């Protein structure tokens, strides 16, 4: 016996989601249980709750690349499958859905504000613009079966706090434009999210969330603007709170170097204390960021040695 669409709708309403809401959703559908109708059944249940005046938005992200050559070989267009799960892909494929043209951070939407959320979002716009627009429209965000991982808006908070470009991790993407493949070089696409779940307990203490079950999955429902503003403020006040402890994380190691965060790290590791190790990591990471396979192998050896030493 699976999870019925009626139960999904009832669970959504119990969380406070209702007709006319504009809703962004991140979901691990497998955590919900076997949903009647699969991903499309889940979407139908949400749309039933939101009604004709509501909007449903999902992230339909795609890959970026470390070299221009890799990016040129994988151009984006709106028919390209996304890499963010079964529900986003099912929504993207619906005939009535709109998808934004951003080559890496696209979203798809259905409903009254679908055009408002997707049309301004293209290769030259801010990567997380739809979440700003959703915030401005009084939208909400729902996270189903993801624990404390507030996907998408956590990166939007890093972006708004000025941290993504501060790490200066150069990446590439491409898109099709009137028969031509155009390659973009950007430093505001890639960020580490390994410890961003640590931002959630303070938000919970503030009472920003409504939490409950959707099917078998623990879920978090929150005002997008409140969550985004709160996380942005925390990250701006303490950029070191976004740093993961993995020695091989180029983004975190470059961010702490570029912003001089070493003295703000709680319980710093040896690679954050030693000037010599910092410089070594910077040299290796500079080559890794340019796509060097040999530098990646060297970092792999360093990572294994570091983990062994920690044990």
Report on this structure.
- The protein is α+β, with helices and mostly antiparallel strands and 311 residues long.
- It folds into 2 domains: 5-240, no CATH class; 244-310, no CATH class.
- It has 15 helices and 9 strands.
- It has helices at 5-15, 29-32, 38-50, 68-72, 86-92, 114-118, 129-136, 153-160, 163-166, 200-205, 224-237, 250-259, 270-273, 275-289, 293-310; strands spanning 22-27, 55-59, 98-99, 107-111, 140-144, 171-177, 180-186, 209-214, 217-223.
- A hairpin with a 2-residue loop joins strand 6 (171-177) and strand 7.
- The radius of gyration is 20 Å and the shape is globular.
- The model has no long low-confidence stretch (mean pLDDT 96).
- How is the biggest beta sheet arranged? 7 strands, mixed
> Can you tell me the overall shape?
globular
Strand content: 15-25%
Structural class: alpha+beta
Residue windows where pLDDT falls under 50 for at least 5 positions:
none
Radius of gyration based on Cα positions: 20 Å
Number of strands: 9
**Strand and helix order:** HEHHEHHEEHHEHHEEHEEHHHHH
Helix content: 40-55%
Strand order of the largest sheet: 3-4-2-1-5-9-8
How far apart are the termini?
A: 45 Å
| Total domain modules | 2
What is the arithmetic mean of pLDDT?
96
The total count of helices amounts to 15
Summarize the structure.
The protein has 15 helices and 9 strands. With 311 residues, it is an alpha+beta fold.
């Amino acid at each position: 016996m699976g999870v019925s669409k009626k139960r999904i709708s009832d669970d959504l309403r119990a969380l406070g989601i209702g007709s006319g809401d504009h809703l962004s959703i991140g979901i691990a559908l497998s955590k919900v249980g076997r949903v009647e109708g699969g991903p499309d059944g889940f979407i139908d249940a949400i749309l039933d709750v939101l009604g004709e005046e509501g909007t449903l938005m999902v992230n339909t992200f795609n890959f970026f690349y470390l070299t221009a050559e890799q990016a040129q070989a994988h151009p984006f267009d709106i028919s390209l499958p996304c890499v963010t799960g079964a529900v986003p892909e099912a929504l993207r494929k619906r005939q009535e859905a709109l998808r934004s043209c951003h080559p890496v951070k696209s979203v798809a939407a259905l409903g009254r504000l679908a055009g408002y959320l997707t049309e301004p979002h293209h290769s030259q716009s801010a990567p997380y613009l739809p979440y700003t627009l959703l915030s401005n429209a009084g939208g909400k965000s729902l996270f189903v079966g993801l624990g404390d991982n507030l996907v998408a808006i956590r990166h939007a908070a890093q972006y708004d706090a000025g941290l993504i470009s501060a790490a200066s991790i150069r990446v590439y993407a491409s898109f099709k434009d009137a028969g031509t493949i155009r390659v973009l070089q950007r430093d505001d696409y890639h960020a580490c999210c390994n410890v961003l779940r640590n931002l959630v307990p303070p938000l919970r203490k503030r009472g920003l969330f409504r939490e409950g079950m959707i099917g078998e999955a623990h879920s978090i429902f929150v005002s997008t603007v409140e969550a985004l503003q709160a996380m942005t403020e925390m990250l701006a006040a303490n950029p070191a709170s976004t740093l993961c402890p993995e020695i091989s994380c180029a983004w975190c190691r470059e961010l702490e170097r570029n912003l001089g965060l070493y003295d703000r790290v709680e319980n710093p590791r040896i690679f954050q204390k030693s000037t010599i190790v910092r410089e070594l990591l910077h040299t290796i990471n500079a080559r890794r960021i340019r796509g060097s396979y040999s530098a990646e192998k060297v970092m792999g050896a360093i990572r294994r040695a570091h983990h062994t030493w920690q044990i």
